[in-house]
Specification:
Layout (H helix, E strand, L loop, with lengths): L1 H6 L4 E5 L5 H11 L8 H10 L4 E6 L4 E11 L10 H4 L14 E9 L8 H15 L4 E7 L12 H9 L8 H6 L3 E7 L11 E8 L19
The structure holds coenzyme A.
Length: about 230
């Protein structure tokens, strides 16, 4: 996590999740996603069991308090559809679909305690997971970005037009803008990723980051497309 450390503001540290963190993580989850059921201890223990190296927490060193998390798992994206929901991609939040042979690190969740937002912690956690992608020699990272600024405009604007304006910085979205600043690219808009996300009117943007210098896995190479040499 050497590069991530460079992005961390003073007084914070990133480490892997432990069972001591579960209660604090659930409490933060309740604050940032008031319409969702927060993670249970059992779910967090399951994430830790299937892929401990992919569960990051950032802590406020002086108080020891958890300030935010980034939860990831490995998937074979070919086993899924581009517009699959969060529930499908995470096997109902259990991460039971984690596949150690997967080429894609799926960023299942990233959230920061409201009292610690806008300090660069989301960015530092994103950098920490990219370092994991590089360390494991993976091809890419994929995620679904909420777009909570879209809900109030849904009646007057198509989601693709909204994303386009956010990409051009003509509009700011509290979540998608952060991801774009952090180097993600938007692949497409999808509906129903988080069906209860009223702020995003049920929409999300599929986002990805390709590891520089890493070739796509053989199954994605163009020579496998029918009709290509
Ligand atoms: C989205 C979230 C994780 C961001 O975390 P954060 O720690 O506040 O974000 P950071 O401080 O690291 O900001 C990252 C980048 O976005 C930029 N940014 C943040 N808010 C911005 C805004 N309102 N307008 C423009 N840029 C903004 C920062 O400047 C930084 O870019 P830079 O490094 O190029 O300067 C946090 O707001 C959150 O937990 N939201 C609720 C849960 C959620 O919706 N999670 C996302 C699920 S997809």
């Amino acid at each position: 996590m050497n590069e991530a450390r460079l992005h961390l503001p003073e007084g914070y540290a990133i480490r892997l999740m432990s069972d001591q963190d579960y209660a604090q993580i659930s409490a933060i989850c309740k604050m940032v996603y008031p319409t969702e059921r927060p993670y249970t201890d059992e779910e967090l223990a399951a994430h830790h069991r299937v892929f401990p190296d992919g569960q990051f927490v950032v802590v406020h060193v002086e108080t020891g308090a958890v300030a935010g998390v980034h939860f990831t798992l490995l998937i074979q994206m070919m086993h899924f559809h581009l517009d699959d929901s969060w529930e499908t991609l995470t096997a109902g939040g259990s991460f039971a679909d984690h596949d150690p042979s997967g080429h894609t690190l799926y960023g299942a969740d990233l959230f920061i305690h409201p009292g610690h937002q806008h300090h660069g912690l989301g960015k530092a956690l994103t950098v920490a997971t990219r370092e994991l992608v590089t360390r494991l020699g993976l091809w890419r990272m994929v995620g679904g970005s909420r777009m909570p600024g879209y809900g109030k405009l849904a009646a007057v604007m198509e989601p693709d037009d909204y994303i386009d304006k956010v990409k051009k910085a003509e509009m700011t979205d509290p979540v998608l803008t952060v991801h774009l600043h952090d180097g993600w690219d938007v692949v497409t808009a999808i509906r129903g990723y988080l069906p209860h996300d009223e702020e995003s009117h049920g929409w999300a943007a599929v986002i990805q980051w390709i590891s520089p210098g890493c070739d796509p896995p053989a199954a994605f190479a163009l020579r496998w497309v029918p009709g290509r040499a």
